[in-house]
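Narrative of accomplishments. A recurring question from our advisory board has been how the design workflow behaves on a single, concrete structure rather than in aggregate. To address it, we present the structure tokens for one chain from the evaluation set, followed by the sequence designed for it. No filtering or post-editing was applied between the two.
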């Protein structure tokens, strides 16, 4: 697929997906941008050499979420009867959380500016978040008479806890990056010019690890949110048995004994 709405590159085992519609503040409810995000994540999943995905955007916004002009004019995914609008959500914007949350490699949101509504939720779909001091976060759906239609009610409580999630959702408050750091919504808050350097530095540290173990560790962390301890332990034992029989596991041990840096090949 030739991308028009996003930019995509992959180098040194790290892929970067950049929302590229600054003219509409990187709104993510258009069919084209949804398809492109979905396609790019699919490319990452299909690439055994890719170990981390960074999601960011062209300044000045990370994402304003939904296209409010389309909402007001009831067009695009917001057109039609209630039943048609429901299907519009399922067939359009809801493909993004399924794609990003389903990404097999660790994901980092590099939030360069305001992340509002579905834009806030896009950052929450990622495993980790780094924010520029220019960033702002708002679960603002109720303020415009809506509810989180893209999975925010799933992601937000898992990141900041239920009480914080309720406050942010019910008030629609927009918080700055420093406050987001205080409540655990983001991992790091940095100067705007340092944002991508910090994101790439974190991605680089992760990309150095054995890729098969990385993907299994990610699956296990998220499976643990919905499993009993007994079931999680069984799944952990199965994954661990697979890891013990990888070349990368032996490479890690040999490098430790030989006091050198390991070289992992994903085998």
């Amino acid at each position: 697929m030739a991308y028009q709405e996003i930019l995509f590159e992959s180098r040194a085992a790290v892929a970067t997906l950049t929302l590229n519609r600054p003219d509409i503040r990187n709104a993510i409810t258009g069919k084209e941008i949804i398809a492109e995000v979905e396609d790019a994540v699919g490319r990452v999943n299909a690439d055994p050499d890719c170990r981390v995905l960074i999601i960011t955007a062209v300044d000045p916004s990370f994402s304003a979420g939904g296209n409010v002009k389309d909402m007001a004019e009831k067009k695009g995914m917001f057109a039609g009867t209630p039943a048609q609008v429901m299907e519009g959500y399922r067939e359009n914007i809801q493909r993004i959380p399924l794609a990003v949350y389903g990404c097999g490699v660790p994901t980092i949101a590099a939030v360069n500016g305001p992340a509002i509504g579905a834009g806030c939720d896009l950052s929450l779909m990622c495993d980790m978040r780094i924010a520029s001091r220019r960033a702002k976060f708002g679960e603002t759906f109720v303020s415009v008479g809506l509810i989180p239609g893209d999975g925010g009610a799933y992601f937000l409580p898992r990141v900041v806890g239920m009480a914080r999630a309720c406050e942010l959702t019910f008030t629609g408050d927009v918080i700055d990056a420093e406050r987001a750091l205080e409540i655990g919504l983001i991992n790091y808050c940095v100067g705007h010019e340092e944002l991508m350097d910090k994101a790439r530095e974190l991605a680089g540290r992760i990309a150095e690890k054995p890729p098969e173990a990385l993907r299994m560790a990610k699956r296990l962390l998220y499976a643990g949110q919905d499993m009993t301890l007994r079931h999680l332990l069984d799944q952990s034992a199965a994954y661990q048995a697979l890891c013990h029989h990888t070349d990368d596991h032996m490479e890690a041990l040999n490098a430790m004994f030989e006091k050198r840096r390991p070289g992992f090949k994903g085998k």
